[in-house]
Every structure is written in structure tokens, then in C-alpha cells.
Inverse folding.
């Protein structure tokens, strides 16, 4: 599975995280690394330990070209080359000595305020530019969470329509001390397309002409989820830990254009409360309760899959087939090798108009989803007050 997942670019950080501190220790796909941005604006993702005698590079510093170790001053660049070995350069200058000392390094790119890394065999494929990344006039924010379980049970949640009714609707009612029941799912179906799977649903009070059935939601291949105004990715840290990366877009009300966001904030959402219980007040926190509750690596031999789980079976089978494709030397599903098709890739989207055309602030009242989004950030617990404030200013609803 690691061989397969390393064929895809992964979002691994928010670019704004590196504004405050240019070096971030990070663990990805079972490897301890440091992510950095040097003074020339180049990103690097290199072995966490210096190629000299293994000092921890997050205690080094960045320079115009590369990252320098604080132990004996070796300087490495984003390709992993060792550029300087200060004592050797005085006492024993020999370019080949440095050539032997290169370190592990992976390609990094910035897109949509996210830092993306590719940890697979070169040449790297194209980095897909999903259409929402090109939308102007929106407030965007990036939320990270450290989730102590395997990435795939998080991703199975991306193709699980029925859980919305229970985990987000009925459980939220109970958490607020209310009973009653949300509209039941009457019908679901799953379809595959080039960049993943789509699930469609009809609930009580809806019909087949509703966008939940005609358009649906996207389980983005291989480890993402796209819901019209936000993306989520489940990035493997190792077999037992996942970095949850979410990217949110909220278009400013019509009439407030042009809105240009100076920097896209990144924040980390805590997942446990002071007593050590999982936080359950926010939508993605509720999902996290499901993911970690299944165990560090869910035991699938003890499951009982039913018709609500057809999409999960489709996704598992596709993963097995794509692992075989990689083993046979082929590019797996969704890998893009030429530049043009990677630009501005449209995805099925129930919320396209409200994100690209917008509505006036006065009409938000009539739009339950947008109205709720103005009132509070419901996806992740712990939005910092300064992010809330920047959001309110963008929307034109900041208190005096
Ligand atoms: S351990 Fe990094 S320069 Fe010596
Ligand atoms: Fe959910």
C-alpha cells in the first residue's frame, strides 16, 4: 500500500505554518523528515537527521540556499545535495567528499496555501490543480489534526453516506439533549470516475431531482474527500497515525469583491478534551471519534458489511487492483503525467454556484448551510479567535 500511496502528491502542511518557523519536523509514510522553506523561498523535505552524524535538523536554520545543521554546520539543499562542510572545506577540500554525503530529499510544491510533497519514484507526476483551488474572492483556511489511527479507516469514512444521518444528525441531537430523528436515508448509490468515487443519496424529504442524487459527493482518490466547499485528506504518517488535512473555502458575499486574502491561515484542531475524551462537538471531530474508535488498525475480519457499505467494498477492491498495477510497473489510477490535464480539474460539486457566483449577504438568511457557516465554524473544534475575526472581516460581519 505504501508503494501505491507514494505515487501521489500529498498535502503535508499549510504554507503559512512556515512563516512563523521555517522548519517543521514531520513524519510521513513512516519516515522522519523535516520540511523547510529556505530564504530563497524554496521548499525542501529532507531526512530529519543530518547526513554527517545524524543531528536533528529542525534545530538547524535556513539560509538563502538550503538548511544548515547546527552541530557542525553542514549545508544541504532541497535536492538533498550537501553544499558545504565547513571544516572539510578548509582542511580537506574535495568536491567528491561532499557528493558522497547527500541525503534523502523529496520534491515539494506550494498550491492553494498547502504544501504538497511527493515521496515516490521520479519523475514526479503532475500536481493536480482541483478547480476550487482557482476560485477567487474566498476566505480559505487550513485545519490540521493528528489522528492516532491508520489512514484507511479515515478514508473509508469518505464513502459512507449513511453515517451523516447518525453520527452528525442524530448524535448531535442527543449531544444537545434532544431526541427526535433526522430524515432517514431511503436510497444510496456509488459510482466510480477518474479521480475517485461518487456517492449519491435520497433521504426523507428529498427526491431524485435533488443534487444529493444528481451530483453527489466525492471520495477523492486515493485519500481525499471533496464536499463542494471543502476538501479533506487523510495523509499517512505511518501505519498507526494519520495527519488530517482540511482546506475550507467560503466565498465572500456578492458585492464584496474583489476580496484578496493576504495569507491562508493554518491551525491545528485538538481532538481530546481536558479529561482525555475525544471531542465530539464539531463535525470532523465526530468523524475522528469514529476513526479512532475503530482501533489503531481496524480489524476487518470482525466486520459485517451490509448494503450501506457497498462503496467501501468498491474502494477496497480498487486499491487492491491499483497495488497490482504499481507492482506490474504501471501508473495507478488518477496519476496525471501531462501538464494540461492537471490544470483546473473540475469535480462533481453540489455547491459550485454559491462558491463561484456568490449571493448577497441579505440572502444568507435563506440559505441554511451558508447561514450556519456565518454563525460559527462547525467543522473542527478550536478555531483561533484571530482566524474567526479575519473570516468575519472578509464576510463583512465583523463586530465593531
Ligand atoms: S551532525 Fe550535522 S553537521 Fe555534524
Ligand atoms: Fe462525517
Amino acid at each position: 500500500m505504501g508503494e501505491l500511496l507514494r505515487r501521489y502528491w500529498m498535502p503535508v502542511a499549510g504554507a503559512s505554518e512556515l512563516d512563523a518557523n521555517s522548519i517543521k519536523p514531520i513524519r510521513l509514510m513512516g519516515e522522519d523528515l523535516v520540511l523547510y522553506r529556505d530564504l530563497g523561498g524554496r521548499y525542501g523535505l529532507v531526512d530529519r537527521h543530518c547526513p554527517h552524524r545524524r543531528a536533528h535538523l529542525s534545530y538547524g536554520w535556513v539560509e538563502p540556499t538550503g538548511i544548515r545543521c547546527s552541530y557542525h554546520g553542514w549545508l544541504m539543499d532541497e535536492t538533498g545535495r550537501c553544499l558545504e562542510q565547513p571544516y572539510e572545506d578548509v582542511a580537506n577540500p574535495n568536491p567528491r567528499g561532499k557528493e558522497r554525503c547527500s541525503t534523502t530529499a523529496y520534491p515539494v510544491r506550494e498550491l492553494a496555501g498547502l504544501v504538497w510533497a511527493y515521496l515516490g519514484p521520479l519523475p514526479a507526476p503532475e500536481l493536480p490543480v482541483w478547480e476550487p483551488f482557482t476560485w477567487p474572492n474566498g476566505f480559505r483556511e487550513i485545519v490540521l489534526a493528528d489522528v492516532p489511527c491508520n489512514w484507511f479507516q479515515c478514508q473509508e469514512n469518505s464513502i459512507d453516506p449513511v453515517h451523516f444521518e447518525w453520527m452528525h444528525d442524530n448524535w448531535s441531537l442527543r449531544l444537545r439533549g434532544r431526541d427526535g430523528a433526522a430524515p432517514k436515508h431511503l436510497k444510496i448509490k456509488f459510482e466510480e470516475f477518474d479521480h475517485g468515487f461518487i456517492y449519491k443519496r435520497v433521504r426523507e424529504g428529498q427526491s431524485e431531482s435533488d443534487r444529493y442524487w444528481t451530483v453527489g459527493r466525492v471520495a477523492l482518490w486515493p485519500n481525499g474527500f471533496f464536499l463542494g466547499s471543502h476538501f479533506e485528506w487523510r495523509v499517512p504518517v505511518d501505519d498507526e497515525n494519520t495527519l488530517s488535512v482540511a482546506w475550507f473555502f467560503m466565498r465572500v458575499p456578492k458585492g464584496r469583491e474583489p476580496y484578496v486574502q493576504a495569507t491562508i491561515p493554518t491551525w491545528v484542531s485538538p481532538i481530546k478534551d481536558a479529561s482525555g475524551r475525544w471531542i465530539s462537538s464539531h463535525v470532523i471531530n465526530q468523524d475522528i471519534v469514529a476513526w479512532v474508535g475503530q482501533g489503531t488498525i481496524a480489524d476487518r475480519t470482525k466486520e459485517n458489511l451490509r448494503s450501506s457499505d457497498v462503496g467501501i467494498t468498491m474502494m477496497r477492491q480498487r486499491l487492491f487492483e491499483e497495488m497490482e498495477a504499481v507492482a506490474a510497473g504501471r501508473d495507478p489510477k488518477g496519476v496525471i503525467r501531462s501538464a494540461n490535464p492537471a490544470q483546473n480539474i473540475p469535480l462533481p460539486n453540489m455547491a459550485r454556484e454559491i462558491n463561484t457566483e456568490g449571493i448577497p449577504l441579505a440572502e444568507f438568511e435563506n440559505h441554511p448551510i451558508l447561514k450556519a457557516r456565518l454563525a460559527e465554524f462547525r467543522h473542527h473544534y478550536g478555531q483561533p479567535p484571530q482566524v474567526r475575526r479575519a473570516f468575519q472581516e472578509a464576510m463583512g460581519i465583523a463586530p465593531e
Observations:
- Residues 50, 52-53, 55, 69, 71-74 surround FE2/S2 (inorganic) cluster (ligand 1) (CB under 6 Å).
- The CA atoms of residues 197 and 219 lie 5 Å apart.
- The radius of gyration is 23 Å.
- The chain has a mean pLDDT of 97.
